């Protein structure tokens, strides 16, 4: 390959443009209770002039989490813009959502890729509006306005609020569902610095398998410039755990965040025909009750012709016989990590199963959202008991109960199974991630979804959703940092980082060594 030689004074280096990936009501209550401040404390009066820049997939501005009713006028130092798009007007910005940008460069990259694959379909492009949901969720977690009686179709009911509800939001739509161009991320960081943001929150990262050095990592480069300008950059650490050395965004000048649990679980129990109950984990809005059970079968027992037992047991696509499956609850195993829970659920649903029980030997923290389809996830020991019941009974039956949320779960916090671990591949002598924050089943604002099978009958699309990942942990720290910045405007990014880490609670134990969970007694937060 012939490299183009450039002598322009403004060009420092040239490297391939990488594609980065997105890292998806009680968490602030939990932090307050763990810090010993209790949930009755109120936040002291703070400035509303702190600006958090969210580089993500955009925003859904009409949601109540971005209402500006009690917020003062926009700070005079703000130099940003509210860009109009084909479905986004300047009037969508307000005193809370003070800026919004989008970037055609990402569309150009996606367009060139789709043209090569002959999949391009022309249509409107360019808008700060969120069509993925990721950016809306992270923005409201960091600085959402308090919204009473928030819930996800009755689950996680409470007052939803961001870590710094008085802060302003500046949105930089730099990503699609397929990923984020590194060049676009760097441009967005440049714009955010020039616009006048105080904190940049990025729930995005490189692949942990193909990590670049800091000289060719766009987030590391942009964060260094931000740090020199006094702008703090908070990034997610990635979702490739529990293997070691999988953490990303490890530059020393980045505040790197891992994900941990809170003391809430979403439970969907299995009731067998003999009356025994087994605890399952899931989010489903089925109409099943204890009063009626349904035939239950192992996936391998209802295999399609010429399908190996192991494939049908794992609910591979095309592995189940529709005639044998219809009307039954199907039990699938999870011994093949290549077939996701979502795919297994779709396979069972397509085969007209009445519901699905997944036996999952891994300690997955994230409850799967199956919408109205009855689904639950049970652990190995319980799964073995269910299989024994099926094989020892002539006409085995069961039911899957709809989800309820349970509070007071212990131990908590626990570093999430999926959360990437250190040490950093480039900075092995510097402990990374720096801190953990709630990242499991976090309720926050979400773009309204109206997909068939996702909304319980009689309900409108929810304005809030439950998401899991280090993407959700990152804006918790961004919100906490904004709160501190409002109390101490002169503090540098290093001072804020130090304050959060040194007032945190060190968690030493299996799979949580060197992680810090911040409780920040200064915050007196409650309700998110």
TrEMBL record:
Gene Ontology biological-process entries: proteolysis
Residues at the active site: 56 (charge relay system), 134 (charge relay system), 471 (charge relay system)
Name of protein: Peptidase S8/S53 domain-containing protein
PANTHER family in alphabetical order: PROPROTEIN CONVERTASE SUBTILISIN/KEXIN (PTHR10795)
A Pfam entry, by short name: Peptidase_S8
Family the UniProt entry places it in: Belongs to the peptidase S8 family.
Keywords, alphabetical: Hydrolase, Membrane, Protease, Serine protease, Signal, Transmembrane, Transmembrane helix
Classification via Gene3D superfamilies: 3.50.30.30, Peptidase S8/S53 domain (3.40.50.200)
TM ranges: 508-525
């Amino acid at each position: 390959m012939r490299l183009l030689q450039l002598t322009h004074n403004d060009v420092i280096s040239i490297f391939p443009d990488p594609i980065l990936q997105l890292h998806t009501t009680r968490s602030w209550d939990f932090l307050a209770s763990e810090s010993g401040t209790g949930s009755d404390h109120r936040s002291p009066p703070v400035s509303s002039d702190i600006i958090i820049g969210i580089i993500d997939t955009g925003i859904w501005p009409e949601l109540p989490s971005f209402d500006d009713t009690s917020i003062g006028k926009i700070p005079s130092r703000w130099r940003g813009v509210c860009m109009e798009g084909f479905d986004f007007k300047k009037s969508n910005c307000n005193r809370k959502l003070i800026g919004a940008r989008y970037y055609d460069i990402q569309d150009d990259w996606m367009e060139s890729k789709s043209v090569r694959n002959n999949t391009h379909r022309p249509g409107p492009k360019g808008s700060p509006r969120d069509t993925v949901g990721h950016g809306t969720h992270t923005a409201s977690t960091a600085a959402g306005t308090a919204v009473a009686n928030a819930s996800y179709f009755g689950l996680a009911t409470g007052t939803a609020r961001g870590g710094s509800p008085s802060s302003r939001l500046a949105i930089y739509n730099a990503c699609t569902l397929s990923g984020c161009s590194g060049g676009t991320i760097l441009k967005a960081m440049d714009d955010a610095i020039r616009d006048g943001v105080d904190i940049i929150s990025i729930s995005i990262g490189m692949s942990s398998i193909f990590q670049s050095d800091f000289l060719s990592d766009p987030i590391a480069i942009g964060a260094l410039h931000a740090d020199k300008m006094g702008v703090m950059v908070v990034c997610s650490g990635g979702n490739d755990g529990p293997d070691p050395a999988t953490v990303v965004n490890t530059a020393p000048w980045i505040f790197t965040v891992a994900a941990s649990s809170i003391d809430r679980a979403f439970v969907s129990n299995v009731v067998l025909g003999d009356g025994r109950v087994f605890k399952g984990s899931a989010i489903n809005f089925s109409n099943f009750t204890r009063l009626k059970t349904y035939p239950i079968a192992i996936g391998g027992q209802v295999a399609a012709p010429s399908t190996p037992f192991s494939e049908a047991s794992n609910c591979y696509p095309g592995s189940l016989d529709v005639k044998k499956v219809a009307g039954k609850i199907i039990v699938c195993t999870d011994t093949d990590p290549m077939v996701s829970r979502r795919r297994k659920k779709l396979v069972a649903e397509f085969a007209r199963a009445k519901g699905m029980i997944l036996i999952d030997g891994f300690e997955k923290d994230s409850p799967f959202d199956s919408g109205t389809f009855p689904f639950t996830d049970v652990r190995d020991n319980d799964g073995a008991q269910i299989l024994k019941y099926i094989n020892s009974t002539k006409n085995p039956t069961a039911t899957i109960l709809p989800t309820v949320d349970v509070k007071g779960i212990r131990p908590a916090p626990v570093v999430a199974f999926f959360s990437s671990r250190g040490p950093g591949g480039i900075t092995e002598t510097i402990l990374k991630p720096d801190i953990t924050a709630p990242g499991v089943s976090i309720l926050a604002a979400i773009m309204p979804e109206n997909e068939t099978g996702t909304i319980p009958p009689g309900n409108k699309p929810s304005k809030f959703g439950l998401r899991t990942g280090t993407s959700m942990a990152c804006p918790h720290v961004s919100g906490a940092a904004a709160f501190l910045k409002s109390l101490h405007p002169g503090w540098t990014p290093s001072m804020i980082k130090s304050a959060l880490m040194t007032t945190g609670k060190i968690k030493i134990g299996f799979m949580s060594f060197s992680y810090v969970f911040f409780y920040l007694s200064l915050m007196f937060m409650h309700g998110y």
